[in-house]
Amino acid sequence: MGRARELVRYSATRLGLAPLMLWLIATLVFLLLRVAPGDPVDAVLGSRAPADAKAEMRARLGLDQSLFDQYWHYLQGLFQGDLGQALINQEPVRSIINRTLPASLELSVIALIAAAIIGLSIGFSGIARPEGKIDLSGRLYGLGTYALPPFWVAMLLQLLFAVSLGWLPVGGRFPPSLLPPDGSGFYLFDCLRSGDWTGLRGTIRHLILPAGTLALLLSGTFTTALRLNLRRTLRNDYVEAARSRGLTERQVILRHGLPNALLPVLTIAGITVASLIGGALLIEVTFSWPGIALRLQEAINQRDYPVVQGIVVVIAALVVLVSVAVDLLVAALDPRIRY
Amino acid sequence: MKSDQIQFQCGLLRVASTLLFAFAQVACQPPANQSRLTVASLGKISSLDPAQASTLGTTQLLSALGDTLYRLDQQGELTPRLASSAPEISDNGLTISIPLRRDVLFHDGSHFDAEAMAFSIRRFLDIGTLSYVVGDRIAAVEVASRYRLVLKLNRPSTSLEGLLTSVNLTPISPKAYLNYKDRFLHDRFVGTGPYKLTSFSEHQQRLEPFQNYWDTQPSNDGLDLITLSNSTALFGALTSGEVDVLLSASIDEDQRHALHNMAQRGQLHEGRGPAMGIGYVTLLSNVEPLNDRKLRQALALSLDRLEISKRVSYGLRQPLQSLVPPSLPGGNRPSWPSHNPEAARSLLRESGYCNGRVLSIPLTFRTNVPADKLFALTWQAQVQRDLPDCMNITLDGVESTTVYRQLGEGAFKAVMLDWRGSYPDPEAYLTPLLSCLKANGEICLEGEAAISGSFWSTPGLQNTLRSSDVLRGKARLDPLHRLEDLTAEGSAYIPVWLETPRAWSQTSISQPRFDGSGRVRLNQLRRMD
Questions:
Q1: Does domain B277-499 have CATH number 3.60.20.30?
Q2: CATH topology (fold) of B1-47+193-273+503-529
Q3: Mutate to test the interface with A, among B5, B18, B130, B254 (most CBs of A within 10 A)
Q4: Is B239 part of the contact surface with chain A (CB cutoff 8 Å)?
Q5: Cβ within 8 Å, pair A177-B33
Q6: What is the CATH class of A99-301?
Q7: Which of A190, A230, B146, B268 could lock onto A183 through a cystine, CB 3.0 to 4.6 A?
């Protein structure tokens, strides 16, 4: 079987398993929410609302149906792309996700790019002299940033740059005195597209602290991964062969070492961005970033079942899709991989 | 190899310099629009519909966007706003006639009149999530003439006047809400207030002065309201000068204290409103061991409110010995006993404790309310200090959504809660805790007292509660005091503290002022030259 056919078959298998994983996740979320204490009707009407008003709302929301019926309707809705409405304000869950997901994606992608630049630069800078001062500093940096508690770093940076120095805003996503740009919800892109330079500057100012904190915390992973992979790669026979052919050390590293060492880093980057979308909660809470993780936390507190279900399913879908995409990309780039 | 390394390091240095330059460019604070004010508070605004408003943030925002028929001034007096004079009450107390102003416009240009007011009240009664606060008191809402509204009541109700100051009854434009008669409109608001809403999101709202406002124009050129997700961010935003005004009842105690101290040093302005929020402990009175009234009374006597206030809030939360806030009728008289461990010990002995038998009470606190945990720890330590051989308190933290869900199921022997009446009247504090539809002796089987988690009632209580809402003026004080005394005697609730709303502004901004309902008068905030 040709490599291309094998790759197609592998892709089909991975993509075919994705719906099964999503179904499992959706089912688990549905059941866990119903087991959790707390009544969504109380959250909307208050515990003192009259029993008939509560019963009416329970019927309107379908919460008076059997668990199986509720589950069946939930799956039907999911299948049709209908994620339902928020219980608290009847806003379609889809529009909540449309509003909050771009904020989280913008934060995650910028943080990831910054983390990759910082982490890879530090990881790469020590390779010229293994076990030298720069290499040792890189190792310490990698371990240190990985071990730092996110909320602590976030609060320290917030205290220093926003409260004490007053250089950057404490929280939020856009200057309060300006109207957020219309468009995709990715403010950097929207401001650039509309030529709103004041808005762009405001967006960048608001992004620096949360994205910088995330980048700082993630960069150590890149540093360690690159450093370890590069060192292992440079000990391979084909690298020795390249050296013996008379290539300079720079050529050896850049042409033979780095491309091979970067493949595992690509996998790490993919998994990181996927997990960041829903996993940057502490950063979003600390910096009042109106992203999907913060919205998920609010919805859990309010027992807003449709919002929690919708957001978890979308995050899970993104994680699954990004993981599959990264696997396929690595498989396509690395001829050694067998399917 | 060495030159490669130097080249690489130079490259890194160049990148770092460029980044630093770019950072310096964006880090400079952009010039603020001097005429507008940025006001910050905690938590998001999910809905702007007055029929659904319940959070402090929402009612504060709606009070800037709309007017009510009446407002309580700082002295607690009812002041006409959209009404042109005081309500006229019939001799039998069953009809309230309200004359309305004739010069009021909604933000959409339509006229405010009795039809609009009736539309708003009827809509609240039909779909309002808090419509139960009106209960069965209003029989009909009638339009007597274009500028006269008549409320027909099922029974005389003194507290209804206080209800007319409620933000939930803020009039909305029937024209704008034509398609929302029987459902909520969450992201828009068309009222008659000094500001109109020009942009809304859950975390940010933009308000512009309404040029055709019937009363004095706002003292500022508009407001940008932002909500941040935690107390530390709010504190930082105010102290760094990023926001002009901070409104928050939910800011952590340490930060509230720090802001209070800064205001005392002249680094900020602090405004204080009438204390309308009460903190109290509910005791489960229908099962052992707290079905023994003496034990409940002993618990009440073991509480040193003054020390708790100092330890938890640096004295910023006033000790409270009544269920009704002191600023309201009937609330300025301490009915619950002060700290007296010896009296507590004596009661515990009478119930068979202290002689080698220790009463253990599990106290539940809400984990997402920092002050609750501090209170619980302090009370536990007080009991350990004063009554170690008689009683001990064990702590149990539960998230607030779960607490409210399980309260009416009798899940908590003792639980710390808080309450803020929907309108400034004793009725809004007493009925939600004491009203009972079906009782058996001292046990409430059905009604608010059961929902509140105490399941407590006592013979004569319901009649006194009803009579307190019929009488007026000084005559009303007697049943109100009797209610408090009966409840203190039963000790199913233990008032702990009173929360005073505060707001802080930069020294370049005028001092925040509150109305009698505990809301900041946003239209009076101004930048001082």
A1: no
A2: D-Maltodextrin-Binding Protein; domain 2 (3.40.190)
A3: B5
A4: yes
A5: yes
A6: mainly alpha
A7: A190
Residue B15 has pLDDT above 80, yes or no: no
Domain ranges of chain B: 1-47+193-273+503-529, 67-184, 277-499
Average pLDDT along chain A: 82
Would you kindly state where each structural domain of chain A is located, as residue ranges?
99-301
pTM value is 0.82
A188 near B CB under 8 A: no
- The model's pLDDT over A5-15, given as tens digits with 9 standing for 90+, comes to 777 787 788 78
CATH code that applies to domain B67-184: 3.90.76.10
Nearest-Å Rg of the Cα atoms of chain B is 26
CB contact under 8 A, A47 and B237: no
CA angle B107, B112, B116 (to 5 degrees): 105
Q: How far apart are the first and last CA of chain A?
A: 11
Residues paired with B504 in a beta bridge: B246, B270
Cβ of A177 within 8 Å of Cβ of B54? The answer is no
Question: Is A63 within 8 Å of chain B by CB?
Answer: no
Residue-wise pLDDT for A126-178, tens only, equals: 776 777 777 788 888 888 887 888 888 888 998 899 888 888 998 888 888 78
Are the beta carbons of B43 and B57 closer than 8 angstroms? yes
Angstrom distance (rounded) from CA B401 to CA B410: 15
Find the closest chain A residue to B234 by CA distance.
Answer: A170
Q: How far apart are CA A301 and CA B403, in angstroms?
A: 12
